[in-house]
């Protein structure tokens, strides 16, 4: 393995030819070229007309507050949210981009309400008086992922997201997860601000009720937790919400007893190295990064890209970042195997993935 300081994306693709990705947001994995193209087609105002210029408005390059970083979605989201053609294209192109990174299996997440224009931002559908429901969104995404997956040789399942400061959406998310389970929707997630005045105690109780319903219906559950919020968010997500996986989870390590309990119980951490450095998830930077402790203590974790549009990254970049943090090649290989184990793929799909991984990396 070359030194982490000099390793390139091409090196990563050669040394890690097969990958599995579990934590990436569809809304945050849109090509900048597509944003510009759809914006022109639908006559949606954007702050820039070239990719390089658009990056200045959309991408986060310096450490930023998570909530502030997420506001960038309002700049480019209107170009594809609110109508079938835009959402379908984003889903289809996601498959091609995943395949280029050597991803064989992925679980991409999104908010059906955000993509349906439930936030009321100006979109093509809104400007023409059209109606495009969260259920329509799931249908569009499923079609895009199915067609793109077949074309580019990658299996992509989807996860539907609740949004913390919109608890009124959560029951429908549960219902859509159940309704579309046979069409590739494999789990329910919750994302958005963990703490602060934007999320009330009432919101939390409503989400808890939705998660209890999901568990009753057999819908698999995961949750963003402990990214910038306290360790208590991880405890609540795992032991109250019934989450089988935790998105990020870095702050769980601030409570050693809880961290060891979660590790012992086999909870999987979906880590995102680059985004953790840019959203406050890892306040110590590369030095003593939480992912290193996860590897050292035998936690189950995977490496993921989170929001490539926001952070101008690829999954290969996150592998490079993990190496710079101090992870070894073997740590990363193990994380790929762990991703398969923690995935919501079928038993047959897991068996095939393990066979491919063993052929590429040997037995683990």
Tell me what the structure shows.
- Its EC number is 3.5.4.4.
- The chain has 19 helices and 8 strands.
- Helix 1 (9-15) packs across helix 17 and helix 18 packs antiparallel against helix 19 (347-361).
- It has helices at residues 9-15, 32-41, 51-58, 66-70, 73-76, 84-100, 112-115, 124-127, 134-152, 170-179, 201-217, 231-239, 256-264, 273-278, 290-296, 308-311, 315-325, 329-342, 347-361; strands at residues 19-25, 103-110, 155-163, 185-191, 222-225, 245-248, 268-271, 300-303.
- The longest helix has 19 residues, at 134-152.
- With 364 residues, it is α/β, with parallel strands linked by helices.
Structural class: alpha/beta
- Report the β-strand fraction as a percent range: 5-15%
Largest beta-sheet characterization: 4 strands, parallel
Provide a count of the helices: 19
Quick check: average pLDDT?
Answer: 92
Determine Rg (CA atoms, Å): 19 Å
Low-confidence stretches: 122-129
From the spread of the alpha carbons, the general shape counts as: globular
The N- to C-terminal Cα distance equals 19 Å
Helical percentage = 40-55%
Give the tally of β-strands. 8
Strand order of the largest sheet: 1-2-3-4
* Quaternary organisation of the protein chains: single chain
What sequence of helices (H) and strands (E) makes up the elements? HEHHHHHEHHHEHEHEHEHEHHEHHHH
């Amino acid at each position: 393995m070359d030194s982490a300081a000099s390793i390139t994306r091409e090196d990563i693709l050669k040394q890690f030819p097969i990958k599995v990705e579990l934590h990436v947001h569809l809304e945050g994995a849109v090509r900048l070229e597509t944003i510009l193209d759809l914006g022109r087609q639908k006559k949606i105002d954007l702050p820039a007309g070239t990719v390089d210029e658009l990056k200045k408005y959309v991408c986060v390059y310096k450490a930023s507050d998570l909530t502030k970083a997420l506001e960038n979605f309002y700049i480019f989201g209107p170009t594809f949210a609110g109508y079938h053609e835009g959402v379908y294209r984003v889903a289809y192109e996601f498959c091609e981009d995943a395949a280029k990174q050597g991803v064989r299996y992925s679980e991409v997440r999104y908010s059906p309400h955000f993509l349906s224009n439930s936030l009321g931002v100006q979109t093509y559908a809104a400007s023409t008086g059209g109606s495009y429901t969260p259920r329509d969104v799931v249908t569009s995404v499923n079609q895009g992922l199915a067609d793109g997956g077949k074309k580019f040789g990658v299996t992509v399942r989807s996860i539907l997201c609740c949004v913390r400061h919109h608890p009124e959406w959560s029951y429908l998310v549960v219902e859509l997860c159940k309704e579309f389970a046979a069409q590739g929707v494999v789990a329910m997630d919750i994302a958005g601000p963990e703490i602060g005045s934007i999320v009330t105690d009432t919101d939390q109780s409503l989400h808890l009720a939705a998660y209890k319903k999901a568990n009753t219906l057999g819908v698999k559950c995961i949750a963003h937790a402990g990214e910038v919020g306290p360790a208590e968010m991880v405890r609540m997500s795992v032991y109250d919400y019934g989450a089988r996986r935790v998105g990020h989870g870095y702050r769980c390590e601030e409570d050693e007893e809880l961290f060891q309990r979660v590790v012992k119980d086999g909870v999987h951490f979906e880590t995102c190295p680059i985004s953790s450095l840019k959203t406050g998830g890892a306040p110590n930077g590369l030095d003593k990064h939480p992912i290193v402790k996860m590897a050292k203590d035998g936690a189950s974790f995977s490496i993921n890209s989170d929001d490539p549009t926001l952070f101008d990254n690829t999954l290969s970049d996150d592998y490079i970042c993990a190496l710079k943090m101090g992870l070894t090649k073997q740590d990363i290989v193990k994380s790929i195997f762990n991703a398969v184990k923690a995935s919501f793929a079928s038993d047959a799909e897991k068996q095939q993935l393990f066979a491919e991984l063993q052929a590429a990396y040997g037995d683990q």
